[in-house]
Amino acid sequence: MTDQALRRADQLLSELIELVETARTVPMSASCVVPREHVLDLLDELREVMPPEMDEARRLIAQRDSLLRNADESAADTRARSQAEAETILADAQHHAQELRHSAEARAHEIVESGRAEHGQLVSASGVHRAANESAAQQRAEAEHYDAQVRGEADRYALALRADAEGYVDRTLADLVAILHRATAAAEQGRQALARRRGDADS
After folding, report:
1. Does this model's pTM top 0.70?
2. 49 and 5 in contact (C-beta within 8 Å)?
3. What is the 8-class DSSP label of residue 27?
4. In contact, 54 and 190? CB cutoff 8 Å
């Protein structure tokens, strides 16, 4: 804010104060009557000489709710996407595990049927059943292990995406706080400078 602007702001404030102090009082009341158009003109001119940081602070305050709402919506979208991706990965893993189980059961059935067909060439039918059951059990165990492994990876992926979304919200809010602090500090400096000018003028 230039010296000329400060002097003009101080002059306008002095005129407003004098206008109120010398205004005609309303009988039986502590109120007074002031010329509306004159007061509005003085206020408009005062607004024009105020530092630009005041407009920036007002603009930031007006945008605060919009920024917070956008950050919340972005975080919600990210959470929804991470949840959808995790569910898709889990569904694929479950489908693949189901296919592995079906394949294991079909293979076990084939072994049993083959053992029955070649019963005369085998030492005993119990050995065929045991081998088939062991093979089926092994394939089922592998399918369940794969299912558990993919499920764990999907959960970790979803947690990482949620953490990223929450970090984005936190950084956005921190940036907003920093901008508001700077705007407030600039406005306070302008106000203090104006007060010093008025003090110098009064002395």
Report:
1. no
2. yes
3. T
4. yes
